[in-house]
């Protein structure tokens, strides 16, 4: 089983959504964890967007990156530019993948109407889902097939 760590800025939206889809599409292929540089609670809009697609992320929790210090992962996926810029990418055994995703929570509190925010979260969810499907096919299922 492959170990995956998804790192975002706050571990509240993008990383949590990706975690939910990896659990849904690769339940027996990967052990998935998430972490944030500056942890916040899971974004309720992310919860709602995933629920629309039948993926429940309400039981997931946010974790500071320091909690994984010294642990080994097969894949480290960064979902924000800040996480990509701040993480050292020097492990010979870890494959680093940068998946820069927009953060709709940047618009919360601004003069953006509810319908626009909902569309942004829906678009983010769909982008993450497409990435996860491709990731599972390219990296996880391929490694299972090679082991057989």
Q: What is the string of helix and strand elements?
A: EHEHEHEH
| Portion in beta strands | 5-15%
Distance between the termini: 14 Å
CATH superfamily: Response regulator
Radius of gyration: 15 Å
Query: Which structural category fits the helices and strands?
Result: alpha/beta
Which CATH class?
Answer: Alpha Beta
3D architecture notes:
There is one protein chain. The chain has one domain (2-147): Rossmann fold (3-Layer(aba) Sandwich), CATH 3.40.50. Helix content is 41%, strand content 15%. The chain is globular and about 45 Å long. Helix 1 packs across helix 4 (114-147) and helix 2 (44-52) packs across helix 4. Strands 2-1-3-4 form a four-stranded parallel beta sheet. It has helices spanning 14-25, 44-52, 81-86, 114-147, and strands at residues 2-8, 30-36, 75-78, 95-98. With 148 residues, the chain is α/β, with parallel strands linked by helices. Residues 2-138 form the Phosphotyrosine protein phosphatase I domain. Keywords: Arsenical resistance, Coiled coil. One of its GO terms (biological process) is response to arsenic-containing substance. Pfam families: LMWPc. This is Arsenate reductase.
């Amino acid at each position: 089983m492959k170990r995956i760590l998804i790192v975002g800025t706050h571990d509240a939206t993008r990383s949590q959504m990706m975690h939910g889809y990896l659990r849904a599409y690769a339940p027996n292929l990967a052990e998935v964890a998430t972490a944030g540089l500056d942890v916040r609670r899971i974004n309720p809009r992310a919860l709602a967007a995933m629920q629309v697609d039948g993926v429940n992320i309400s039981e997931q929790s946010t974790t500071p990156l320091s909690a994984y210090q010294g642990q080994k992962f097969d894949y480290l996926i960064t979902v924000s530019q800040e996480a990509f810029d701040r993480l050292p990418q020097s492990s010979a055994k870890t494959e680093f993948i940068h998946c820069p995703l927009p953060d709709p929570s940047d618009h919360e509190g601004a003069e953006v109407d509810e319908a626009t925010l909902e569309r942004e979260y829906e678009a983010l969810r769909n982008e993450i889902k497409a990435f996860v499907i491709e990731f599972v096919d390219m990296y996880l299922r391929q490694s299972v097939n090679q082991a057989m």
